[in-house]
Every structure is written in structure tokens, then in C-alpha cells.
């Protein structure tokens, strides 16, 4: 079993200056927890859902797409050699595509 490490927020930058990034979570059966499988870049939640379904939904019973700016990521490791410690979504704005509570859509 891996040792428990200190988790810090990771510095993540958007991939596109013109479209939004959406984190994708799937559940393969009713008894399974949601699992993060990746992200897609799309202008709306509906388009993100279509893309996520094509890429990740082969065996999924549920697919959730969440605005990446509303997701905070914590890790014991850094990505791409960048030191951890900064927060994604620190200056989020109101999102018309998000669920009423600002969360994910399914």
C-alpha cells in the first residue's frame, strides 16, 4: 500500500482560450462510485456531454461533466514538473451552464 503523502493544489491552465474545459466523471454500474476519467473542451455542457459520451461512455451508466473551473484538484505529486500549491478555480465566475448550485451536470 502506498504511503500517505501531503496533498497540495496543482497549477492547471486552460487548454483553450476560446472554449471551456469540462472534467468528466463516469459510473460503470449503479453500485460503483463516480470515477474521474478525463476532460473535454467544449463551449457548452451539452456538447461536452456528447464528446465525453463518445470518448469515455462506452460502458458507463452515468456520465457527469463539470466545469473545470469549479473543480479543485489535490495531489501528492506534481504534473509536468510544476510544483503544486496553486488552485484552479480560485477566481471563478457565475456559470450559466453549471447546475443551479454551481456544480456538475449529468
Automatic annotation (TrEMBL):
Write out the biased-composition intervals (Basic and acidic residues): 1-35
The protein's matches in Gene3D superfamilies, at most eight in alphabetical order, are given as: Phenylacetic acid degradation B
Quote any Pfam family the record assigns.
Answer: PaaB
Q: What stretch or stretches form a coiled coil here? A: none
Give the region (Disordered) as residue ranges. Answer: 1-36, 74-106
- The name of this protein is RSAM-partnered protein, Htur_1727 family
Organism name: Halogranum gelatinilyticum
Amino acid at each position: 500500500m502506498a504511503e500517505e503523502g501531503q496533498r497540495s493544489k496543482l497549477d492547471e491552465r486552460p487548454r483553450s482560450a476560446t472554449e471551456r474545459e469540462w472534467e468528466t466523471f463516469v459510473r460503470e454500474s449503479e453500485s460503483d462510485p463516480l470515477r474521474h476519467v478525463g476532460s473535454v473542451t467544449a463551449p457548452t455542457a451539452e456538447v461536452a456531454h456528447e464528446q465525453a459520451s463518445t470518448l469515455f461512455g462506452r460502458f458507463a451508466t452515468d456520465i457527469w461533466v463539470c466545469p473545470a473551473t469549479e473543480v479543485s484538484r489535490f495531489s501528492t505529486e506534481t504534473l509536468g514538473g510544476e510544483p503544486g500549491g496553486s488552485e484552479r478555480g480560485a477566481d471563478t465566475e457565475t456559470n450559466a451552464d453549471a447546475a443551479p448550485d454551481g456544480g456538475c451536470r449529468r
